[in-house]
């Protein structure tokens, strides 16, 4: 499903360039639950952003669902992003001016679903995540754990085949974190969604089937 070949990422600095990632080659099969670990600054978020089509590699090749990502047109890449990928952020990244309901509905508007399809899809997610009573509230009125539930509901609303999660429980208390991780486990095991998470926590990594370790931009 995911294949990186000799991927590197660098930023220009002074006379030269600073590498954040070097010679990354990896494949992830559909249905896997993979954790990316490593010290702060080792390139984890950059790698996740490349996988989630939020950043482009400087060198090497990325194939997602057999598509050569860098060679696709902007339109095709956006479509791949909107239909196949969900992204979950540590700080939730919900839209403050929209209600819970509207935040979850946003990707369905992009996908062009009809009003009635959107309504039933959002209702199903509100119900599944036990947040029906919160649907008309704004993000600032929710606890961190509830905001992350909304973040995940939004990420999976368009029924993507892969979810990328960057420290999804990094800002949460441990009971809320456990609830979120159980949710990822269900999405992976029951719905067959492929999951790639960045985490500092061995406990979170234990939910997955495989760990990729980064150090100073190298896979070790
Ligand atoms: P991690 O997620 O493991 O903490 P990151 O991928 O966030 O690591 O960052 C890896 C390194 O890349 C850090 O040293 C960071 O300062 C650097 N970096 C990230 N983004 C940029 C950028 N836009 N320009 C220059 N350096 C960057
Ligand atoms: P419009 O801008 O046309 O009013 P919205 O984006 O507000 O449309 O809503 C789109 C659909 O979602 C409509 O069918 C609307 O009834 C429904 N909807 C929006 N907010 C809520 C909510 N809080 N609870 C239930 N349904 C909602």
From TrEMBL:
A molecular function (GO) term: transmembrane transporter activity
PROSITE patterns: ABC_TRANSPORTER_1, ABC_TRANSPORTER_2
ABC transporter domain span: 2-220
GO cellular component: membrane protein complex; plasma membrane
Keywords (A to Z) from UniProt: ATP-binding, Nucleotide-binding, Transport
InterPro entries in alphabetical order: AAA+_ATPase (IPR003593), ABC_transporter-like_ATP-bd (IPR003439), ABC_transporter-like_CS (IPR017871), ABC_transpr_LolD-like (IPR015854), MacB-like_ATP-bd (IPR017911), P-loop_NTPase (IPR027417)
Signal peptide: none
Family per record: Belongs to the ABC transporter superfamily. Macrolide exporter (TC 3.A.1.122) family.
Record protein name field: ATP-binding cassette domain-containing protein
